[in-house]
Amino acid sequence: MATTEAGDTAANKDARRDRDETEKERLDRNMTELVGELRVALPGVQVLFAFLLTVPFQQRFRQVTSFDETIYLITLLSTAVATALLLAPSALHRIEFRQDDKEHIVQAANRYAIAGFAALMVSVTGAVLLVTHFLYSDTTAYIATAAVGVLLAFCWYVMPIMRRARRGVRG
Questions:
Q1: Please, which pLDDT band fits residue 154 given cuts at 50, 70 and 90?
Q2: Is the pLDDT of residue 141 over 80?
Q3: What's the chain's Rg over C-alpha atoms?
């Protein structure tokens, strides 16, 4: 399985023994932790989306190049996708509420969140490219964008995946 909490790995069994929790308690805890993480991310996504929705109505937007327009469209759409994916766990939980399917909800919500953060990474790097390309030289824009993209990829994906690999955690 592709989720971080899915499956009955040895690490999951050990964690349950260490915590002395039932499977349902573990799923409840996992859901609570995921919701807490999304509460941190969503305000930033909402602010970015609001900013992007106002950009075309600024007078200087008429001065942008076709490259800037393309970057704007990609950034706007990736932010909409990030919003949809990061809100999807809440909608899924509401629809599946009291259906005794918490394991599915946690696994699907985890996948939505991981995909949402990937879309958010595109959004943030796109926003950096859009603003820096409009204000500075191409070189400055590309260096700043690459630096932000690498930082986000490294912190959000590379480091956690490397840690999992070192610990021998699968799925």
A1: very high
A2: yes
A3: 19
Contacts of 109 (CB under 8 A, 6+ apart): 31, 34, 88, 89, 92, 93
Rounded CA-CA distance 49/38 in Å is 16
- Give residue 137's region: left, alpha or beta (phi > 0; psi -120 to 50): beta
Separation of alpha carbons 73 and 148, rounded Å:
19
Place of tokens 């990736």: 78
Q: By C-alpha distance, which of 51, 57, 58, 59 is closest to 75? A: 51
In Å, how far from its chain's centre is CA 90? Answer: 14
- Token pair for 7: 């499956």
Q: Where are the domains of the chain?
A: 10-167
How does pLDDT run across 41-82, given as a tens digit for each residue? 989 999 999 999 999 999 989 989 999 999 999 999 999 999
Nearest to 109 by CA among 43, 169, 34, 7: 34
The pair of structure tokens assigned to 113 is: 């969140």
Other residues' Cβ atoms within 10 Å of the Cβ of residue 15: 14
Q: Considering the entire predicted model, what is its pTM?
A: 0.81
